[in-house]
Protein backbone atom coordinates (compact mmCIF):
# COMPACT_ATOMS: atom_id res chain seq x y z
CA UNK A 1 0.00 0.00 0.00
CA UNK A 2 1.15 3.53 -0.72
CA UNK A 3 -0.24 7.04 -0.15
CA UNK A 4 -3.72 7.50 1.34
CA UNK A 5 -6.20 10.39 1.31
CA UNK A 6 -9.77 10.98 2.50
CA UNK A 7 -12.43 12.89 0.59
CA UNK A 8 -15.77 12.76 -1.23
CA UNK A 9 -14.27 11.72 -4.55
CA UNK A 10 -17.49 10.32 -6.03
CA UNK A 11 -19.64 13.30 -5.07
CA UNK A 12 -22.24 11.25 -3.17
CA UNK A 13 -22.06 13.40 -0.01
CA UNK A 14 -20.05 10.84 2.00
CA UNK A 15 -16.31 10.60 2.55
CA UNK A 16 -14.26 7.70 1.22
CA UNK A 17 -10.65 6.57 1.60
CA UNK A 18 -8.45 6.48 -1.51
CA UNK A 19 -5.15 4.63 -1.59
CA UNK A 20 -2.46 4.01 -4.20
CA UNK A 21 -0.23 0.98 -4.57
CA UNK A 22 3.47 1.76 -4.39
CA UNK A 23 4.61 -1.86 -4.41
CA UNK A 24 3.54 -5.34 -5.42
CA UNK A 25 3.22 -7.23 -8.69
CA UNK A 26 3.22 -5.62 -12.13
CA UNK A 27 -0.58 -5.92 -12.22
CA UNK A 28 -1.14 -4.34 -8.81
CA UNK A 29 1.54 -1.65 -8.58
CA UNK A 30 0.31 1.76 -9.67
CA UNK A 31 -3.37 0.95 -9.07
CA UNK A 32 -5.67 3.25 -7.08
CA UNK A 33 -8.44 1.88 -4.87
CA UNK A 34 -11.50 3.37 -3.16
CA UNK A 35 -12.54 2.12 0.30
CA UNK A 36 -16.08 2.75 1.58
CA UNK A 37 -17.34 1.92 5.06
CA UNK A 38 -20.80 0.28 4.95
CA UNK A 39 -21.25 0.18 8.73
CA UNK A 40 -19.79 -3.28 9.08
CA UNK A 41 -16.71 -3.50 6.89
CA UNK A 42 -14.68 -1.70 4.24
CA UNK A 43 -15.76 -2.23 0.61
CA UNK A 44 -12.90 -1.86 -1.87
CA UNK A 45 -13.31 -0.75 -5.50
CA UNK A 46 -10.53 -0.83 -8.08
CA UNK A 47 -10.30 2.55 -9.84
CA UNK A 48 -7.76 1.54 -12.44
CA UNK A 49 -4.11 1.91 -13.29
CA UNK A 50 -2.70 4.78 -15.33
CA UNK A 51 0.96 3.78 -15.14
CA UNK A 52 2.94 0.80 -13.89
CA UNK A 53 5.18 2.91 -11.66
CA UNK A 54 4.89 3.61 -7.95
CA UNK A 55 2.03 5.86 -6.79
CA UNK A 56 3.62 8.71 -4.86
CA UNK A 57 0.57 10.83 -4.04
CA UNK A 58 -3.25 10.60 -4.05
CA UNK A 59 -5.57 13.58 -3.59
CA UNK A 60 -9.22 14.57 -4.05
CA UNK A 61 -10.32 17.92 -5.47
CA UNK A 62 -11.63 19.90 -8.42
CA UNK A 63 -8.32 19.97 -10.25
CA UNK A 64 -9.75 21.07 -13.62
CA UNK A 65 -12.10 23.73 -12.15
CA UNK A 66 -15.20 22.31 -13.85
CA UNK A 67 -17.36 22.32 -10.74
CA UNK A 68 -16.99 18.60 -9.94
CA UNK A 69 -14.54 16.70 -7.75
CA UNK A 70 -12.05 14.21 -9.18
CA UNK A 71 -9.50 11.79 -7.74
CA UNK A 72 -5.85 12.29 -8.76
CA UNK A 73 -2.83 10.06 -8.48
CA UNK A 74 0.79 11.01 -9.22
CA UNK A 75 3.50 8.52 -10.12
CA UNK A 76 7.24 8.34 -9.61
CA UNK A 77 7.79 8.37 -13.37
CA UNK A 78 5.94 11.70 -13.72
CA UNK A 79 2.57 10.28 -14.81
CA UNK A 80 -0.58 12.01 -13.53
CA UNK A 81 -3.86 10.09 -13.35
CA UNK A 82 -7.30 11.69 -13.14
CA UNK A 83 -10.34 9.59 -12.26
CA UNK A 84 -13.82 11.05 -12.81
CA UNK A 85 -16.91 9.39 -11.34
CA UNK A 86 -19.61 9.52 -14.00
CA UNK A 87 -23.17 10.36 -13.09
CA UNK A 88 -26.21 9.71 -15.28
CA UNK A 89 -27.56 12.87 -16.98
CA UNK A 90 -31.07 13.89 -15.92
CA UNK A 91 -33.94 15.53 -17.84
CA UNK A 92 -36.48 17.69 -16.02
CA UNK A 93 -39.24 20.14 -16.97
CA UNK A 94 -37.95 23.70 -17.41
CA UNK A 95 -40.55 25.24 -15.08
CA UNK A 96 -41.14 28.09 -17.53
CA UNK A 97 -44.73 29.40 -17.85
CA UNK A 98 -46.69 26.71 -19.68
CA UNK A 99 -43.95 24.14 -19.02
CA UNK A 100 -44.27 23.65 -15.26
CA UNK A 101 -45.62 20.11 -15.42
CA UNK A 102 -44.89 18.90 -18.95
CA UNK A 103 -42.81 19.67 -22.02
CA UNK A 104 -45.33 21.15 -24.47
CA UNK A 105 -47.29 24.39 -24.77
CA UNK A 106 -50.14 24.62 -25.49
CA UNK A 107 -51.45 21.28 -24.20
CA UNK A 108 -54.15 21.33 -26.88
CA UNK A 109 -54.77 23.23 -30.09
CA UNK A 110 -56.41 23.20 -33.51
CA UNK A 111 -54.99 21.34 -36.48
CA UNK A 112 -52.13 23.38 -37.94
CA UNK A 113 -51.26 25.04 -34.62
CA UNK A 114 -47.69 25.70 -33.51
CA UNK A 115 -46.67 23.60 -30.51
CA UNK A 116 -43.50 24.49 -28.58
CA UNK A 117 -41.53 21.84 -26.70
CA UNK A 118 -38.99 22.49 -23.92
CA UNK A 119 -36.84 20.38 -21.61
CA UNK A 120 -33.92 20.91 -19.22
CA UNK A 121 -30.75 18.77 -19.35
CA UNK A 122 -28.55 18.41 -16.26
CA UNK A 123 -25.18 16.62 -16.02
CA UNK A 124 -23.20 16.84 -12.78
CA UNK A 125 -20.04 15.96 -14.72
CA UNK A 126 -20.72 18.91 -17.04
CA UNK A 127 -20.74 16.64 -20.09
CA UNK A 128 -22.74 18.18 -22.99
CA UNK A 129 -25.36 16.10 -24.78
CA UNK A 130 -24.35 14.52 -28.08
CA UNK A 131 -27.97 13.54 -28.80
CA UNK A 132 -30.70 16.06 -27.96
CA UNK A 133 -33.94 14.90 -29.55
CA UNK A 134 -37.63 15.59 -29.37
CA UNK A 135 -39.60 12.60 -30.66
CA UNK A 136 -43.27 13.00 -31.66
CA UNK A 137 -45.46 10.19 -32.99
CA UNK A 138 -46.94 12.43 -35.69
CA UNK A 139 -48.65 9.64 -37.65
CA UNK A 140 -50.02 8.12 -34.44
CA UNK A 141 -48.86 4.58 -35.28
CA UNK A 142 -47.19 3.84 -31.95
CA UNK A 143 -43.57 4.15 -33.11
CA UNK A 144 -41.09 7.01 -33.48
CA UNK A 145 -39.78 6.93 -37.02
CA UNK A 146 -36.73 8.77 -38.34
CA UNK A 147 -38.75 11.69 -39.70
CA UNK A 148 -40.48 12.05 -36.31
CA UNK A 149 -37.21 12.80 -34.47
CA UNK A 150 -36.12 16.45 -34.18
CA UNK A 151 -32.82 17.85 -32.94
CA UNK A 152 -33.51 20.48 -30.27
CA UNK A 153 -31.87 23.91 -30.10
CA UNK A 154 -30.18 25.49 -27.08
CA UNK A 155 -32.28 28.25 -25.56
CA UNK A 156 -29.12 30.04 -24.43
CA UNK A 157 -26.08 29.35 -26.62
CA UNK A 158 -23.81 31.28 -24.22
CA UNK A 159 -24.59 28.89 -21.36
CA UNK A 160 -21.89 26.21 -21.29
CA UNK A 161 -22.64 24.95 -17.78
CA UNK A 162 -24.67 21.75 -17.61
CA UNK A 163 -24.33 21.07 -13.88
CA UNK A 164 -27.26 23.37 -13.01
CA UNK A 165 -29.51 22.50 -15.97
CA UNK A 166 -29.59 23.83 -19.52
CA UNK A 167 -32.82 24.33 -21.49
CA UNK A 168 -33.53 23.14 -25.04
CA UNK A 169 -36.51 23.85 -27.29
CA UNK A 170 -38.18 22.95 -30.59
CA UNK A 171 -41.36 24.23 -32.30
CA UNK A 172 -43.55 22.20 -34.66
CA UNK A 173 -46.63 22.87 -36.78
CA UNK A 174 -48.78 19.77 -36.28
CA UNK A 175 -51.43 18.95 -38.88
CA UNK A 176 -52.52 15.40 -38.02
CA UNK A 177 -53.55 13.67 -34.82
CA UNK A 178 -54.76 10.22 -35.86
CA UNK A 179 -58.21 8.97 -34.94
CA UNK A 180 -58.48 10.25 -31.37
CA UNK A 181 -56.68 13.59 -31.63
CA UNK A 182 -54.03 12.54 -29.08
CA UNK A 183 -50.33 12.40 -30.02
CA UNK A 184 -47.48 11.07 -27.86
CA UNK A 185 -44.06 12.68 -27.46
CA UNK A 186 -40.87 12.15 -25.45
CA UNK A 187 -37.34 13.55 -25.08
CA UNK A 188 -34.19 11.51 -25.75
CA UNK A 189 -30.76 12.84 -24.67
CA UNK A 190 -27.35 11.17 -24.40
CA UNK A 191 -23.88 12.38 -23.51
CA UNK A 192 -20.71 10.59 -24.61
CA UNK A 193 -21.33 7.79 -22.10
CA UNK A 194 -24.93 7.49 -20.94
CA UNK A 195 -28.59 8.02 -21.90
CA UNK A 196 -30.42 10.59 -19.80
CA UNK A 197 -33.10 9.54 -17.34
CA UNK A 198 -36.07 11.39 -15.85
CA UNK A 199 -39.80 11.95 -16.36
CA UNK A 200 -39.40 13.73 -19.74
CA UNK A 201 -37.90 10.53 -21.21
CA UNK A 202 -41.26 8.80 -20.69
CA UNK A 203 -44.21 9.17 -23.05
CA UNK A 204 -46.48 12.17 -22.63
CA UNK A 205 -49.25 13.50 -24.88
CA UNK A 206 -50.95 16.59 -26.25
CA UNK A 207 -54.29 17.02 -28.03
CA UNK A 208 -55.22 18.34 -31.47
CA UNK A 209 -58.75 19.62 -32.00
CA UNK A 210 -60.47 19.43 -35.38
CA UNK A 211 -62.08 22.86 -35.80
CA UNK A 212 -62.90 22.47 -39.50
CA UNK A 213 -66.49 22.02 -40.66
CA UNK A 214 -67.93 18.88 -42.26
CA UNK A 215 -67.06 18.29 -45.90
CA UNK A 216 -69.78 17.63 -48.49
CA UNK A 217 -68.11 15.10 -50.72
CA UNK A 218 -70.85 14.82 -53.36
CA UNK A 219 -74.55 15.47 -53.97
CA UNK A 220 -76.74 13.50 -56.38
CA UNK A 221 -80.02 14.98 -57.67
CA UNK A 222 -82.72 13.23 -59.71
CA UNK A 223 -82.28 14.41 -63.30
CA UNK A 224 -85.28 12.79 -65.03
CA UNK A 225 -87.46 15.82 -65.84
CA UNK A 226 -90.35 13.59 -66.91
CA UNK A 227 -90.67 12.31 -63.36
CA UNK A 228 -93.31 14.13 -61.34
CA UNK A 229 -91.61 13.57 -58.02
CA UNK A 230 -90.95 13.46 -55.19
CA UNK A 231 -87.27 13.84 -56.08
CA UNK A 232 -84.71 12.09 -53.79
CA UNK A 233 -81.48 13.97 -53.12
CA UNK A 234 -78.45 12.04 -51.86
CA UNK A 235 -75.59 13.87 -50.11
CA UNK A 236 -72.36 12.22 -48.94
CA UNK A 237 -70.76 13.98 -45.95
CA UNK A 238 -67.25 13.14 -44.77
CA UNK A 239 -65.41 14.48 -41.71
CA UNK A 240 -68.78 14.59 -39.99
CA UNK A 241 -67.68 14.62 -36.34
CA UNK A 242 -70.29 16.32 -34.15
CA UNK A 243 -72.72 16.73 -37.10
CA UNK A 244 -76.28 16.34 -35.78
CA UNK A 245 -78.39 18.17 -38.38
CA UNK A 246 -78.40 18.21 -42.19
CA UNK A 247 -80.63 20.72 -44.01
CA UNK A 248 -81.33 20.81 -47.76
CA UNK A 249 -81.81 24.23 -49.38
CA UNK A 250 -83.46 24.22 -52.81
CA UNK A 251 -85.23 26.53 -55.32
CA UNK A 252 -88.48 25.88 -57.14
CA UNK A 253 -89.60 27.84 -60.23
CA UNK A 254 -86.90 30.40 -59.45
CA UNK A 255 -89.29 32.14 -57.08
CA UNK A 256 -88.68 31.04 -53.52
CA UNK A 257 -86.07 29.17 -51.50
CA UNK A 258 -87.36 26.22 -49.51
CA UNK A 259 -85.68 24.24 -46.77
CA UNK A 260 -86.12 20.70 -45.59
CA UNK A 261 -84.65 18.93 -42.59
CA UNK A 262 -82.81 15.85 -43.84
CA UNK A 263 -82.64 12.47 -42.24
CA UNK A 264 -79.40 10.53 -41.87
CA UNK A 265 -78.96 6.98 -43.03
CA UNK A 266 -75.99 5.02 -41.67
CA UNK A 267 -72.56 6.30 -40.97
CA UNK A 268 -70.52 8.05 -42.34
CA UNK A 269 -73.09 8.87 -45.09
CA UNK A 270 -75.96 11.23 -44.36
CA UNK A 271 -78.80 10.99 -46.88
CA UNK A 272 -82.03 12.88 -47.31
If you had to describe this structure to a student in words, what would you say it looks like?
There is one protein chain. With 272 residues, the protein is mainly beta. It has strands at 4-7, 16-20, 31-37, 42-49, 55-61, 70-75, 80-83, 90-92, 104-105, 108-110, 113-122, 131-136, 149-151, 153-154, 166-174, 182-190, 204-209, 215-221, 233-238, 246-252, 256-262. The protein folds into three domains: 4-83, no CATH class; 90-209, Macroglobulin (MG2) domain (Immunoglobulin-like), CATH 2.60.40.1930; 215-262, no CATH class. The strands form six sheets. Strands 8, 9, 11, 14 and 15 form a five-stranded antiparallel beta sheet that branches. A hairpin with a 4-residue loop joins strand 3 and strand 4. Mean pLDDT is 83; it is low at 266-272.
What's this, in brief?
With 272 residues, the protein is mainly beta. 0% of the residues lie in helices and 44% in strands.
Element layout with pairings:
Blueprint: E1 4-7, E2 16-20, E3 31-37, E4 42-49, E5 55-61, E6 70-75, E7 80-83, E8 90-92, E9 104-105, E10 108-110, E11 113-122, E12 131-136, E13 149-151, E14 153-154, E15 166-174, E16 182-190, E17 204-209, E18 215-221, E19 233-238, E20 246-252, E21 256-262
Parallel strand pairs: 10-17
Antiparallel strand pairs: 1-2, 2-3, 3-4, 5-6, 6-7, 8-11, 9-11, 11-15, 12-13, 12-16, 14-15, 16-17, 18-19, 20-21
